[in-house]
Structure formats: C-alpha cells, structure tokens
Automatic annotation (TrEMBL):
<dbReference type="InterPro" id="IPR037914">
    <property type="entry name" value="SpoVT-AbrB_sf"/>
</dbReference>
<protein>
    <recommendedName>
        <fullName>SpoVT-AbrB domain-containing protein</fullName>
    </recommendedName>
</protein>
Amino acid sequence: MPTQIVFRAGNSNVVAIPKNLSRELGFKSGLNVVVSKIPGEDAIVIRKATKAAKVKEKTIDREFKNWLDNVLQEDKEILDELAVR
C-alpha cells in the first residue's frame, strides 16, 4: 500500500486520496464528506456526507434566521436608538 504525505493547507492538515480509491468510492472534487476518528485507534474514516446532514444544516440555518428575525423585530426600538448614538 503506497504511503501519502500529510501537508498543510491554511490551518488544516491535508492528505491526498489516491485516484483509484477516489474512482472506486465515487469521490469527486467538491464532494462533501464527513471525517471521523475511529475510537481507540489511530485511524480515521472518510464518508460521503448524507443528505440528512445537509437537511439538518439547512434546518439549523432556518431556525437561526427565524430567531434573528424575531430578535430584530422585538428589539427594533432599542436597536434603532443604539444606531442613532
């Protein structure tokens, strides 16, 4: 099994996925993946992100937007006063 080199990209460490594995797994550039550690081992697992994970993110974003809209609406007078100062 060939070895890979870990290199830096910004604040992250990066490892290239060999072409044959990428093809076999259907990994393409831009694909969302989940990286997790196997408990008790020095190993990681890389999986395709599921649609459920994407839906959860959208739900959280929607919940946050609704919360922010409510705060802005409820505290409009206070925020307007602070903006003037």
